[in-house]
Amino acid sequence: MTASADLCALPAESEAPRVLIVDDQELIRAGFRMILTVRGITVVGEAADGAGAVAAERRLAPDVVLMDIRMPTMDGLEATRRILARSPRCRVLMLTTFDLDRYVYVALAIGASGFLLKDVTADHLANAVRLVGTGDALLAPSITRRLVERFAGGPTERSTAHRDLTPLTPREREVLTLLGRGLSNTEIAATLTLSEATVKTHVARIFAKLDLRDRAQAVVLAYETGLVTPGG
């Protein structure tokens, strides 16, 4: 899979978010800063490890954090957990070398809004940051589903497992199940013979009732609560 294949359709133009770059390699931070800056995105700061990221987020209040997963002192997973616990409106976009890294699965479960491979193209990096800055998830649900199918049921940490689904109506459970299977709103509408507007309303209510950030987390939750099973 190429880096470009990981990206869903991204908007070329949107209000630019304020970004914090976190990576233990100075050259990567400098390269990402240059790429984003020349495309009109403000980089408010950098950090070389997770502890620095947590401190910088508190001080700078960025809209998006570009977060490396594997770093010394405090890794990107623990930093993401602490940042989102304090600043739920902040969006975290994980950086990884491998597209099926099991740590990516954990990151999605704790609330990261998606991931990028470090060899992502310059335009895709900028567009991904803009997309996540709008509050959307970067990953296509089908890609998230592949991650979950590969790692669900293993020893991986599960932050959203066993969440109570009783607040959902029967129809909302149906919609969440189809989200977990990787269907788009259009496909869900066709499957359930509903309008897309109705599906969007159901999705919004599911997110509100279950305190989900985006579709990526919804896919993880559908697997971890048993609505969808690997290979099912």
Brief description of this entry?
The chain is an alpha/beta fold. The protein is 47% helix and 11% strand.
Q: How would you characterize the overall build of this protein?
A:
This protein is of the alpha/beta class and 232 residues long. Helices cover 47% and strands 11% of the residues. The protein has a 5-stranded parallel beta sheet, sandwiched between helices. Helix 1 (26-38) links the parallel strand 1 and strand 2. Helix 6 (141-151) packs parallel to helix 10, helix 7 (170-180) crosses helix 9 (196-210) and helix 7 crosses helix 10 (215-224). The relative contact order is 0.13.
Dominant shape: globular
The level of helicity is 40-55%
Q: Architecture of the largest domain, according to CATH?
A: 3-Layer(aba) Sandwich
pLDDT < 50 runs, ≥5 residues: 1-13, 155-161
CA distance, first residue to last residue: 23 Å
Structural class comes to alpha/beta
Largest sheet, described in full? 5 strands, parallel
Task: Please supply descriptive tags for the structure shown above.
single chain, 232 residues, alpha/beta, Rossmann fold, Arc Repressor Mutant, subunit A, 2 domains, five-stranded parallel sheet, 10 helices
Question: Which helices and strands occur, and which strands form pairs?
Answer:
Blueprint: E1 18-22, H1 26-38, E2 42-47, H2 50-60, E3 64-68, H3 76-86, E4 91-96, H4 102-109, E5 115-117, H5 122-133, H6 141-151, H7 170-180, H8 185-192, H9 196-210, H10 215-224
Parallel strand pairs: 1-2, 1-3, 3-4, 4-5
